[in-house]
Amino acid sequence: MAFLQWSCQDVAKWIESLGYPQYTSISAYVRGLLGISEPLWSRSIADSPRDDMGMFLEMKCRTGKRADSLTYAQFLNYRKKTTRLQ
């Protein structure tokens, strides 16, 4: 069960070995279109949060009325308010 200890790169190599190398390219192109960087899986929680677009997309991936209706402008306003409070 060594696969339970795999890093993100190990998983990517495994997927490529199965014959799905296009997923690496597709993911890179989608990140490019969205203007976001590849998330670092080794990032410490002590580091600053991801960029605004990446965090917005994380919130949008949830389901429900609130997530569906959230706009990028609303998200930025919320971030601005919460950042000032800290």
From TrEMBL:
Name this polypeptide is given: Sterile alpha motif domain-containing protein 15
Domain SAM residue range list: 6-32
Organism: Bagarius yarrelli (Goonch)
Listed InterPro entries: SAM (IPR001660), SAM/pointed_sf (IPR013761)
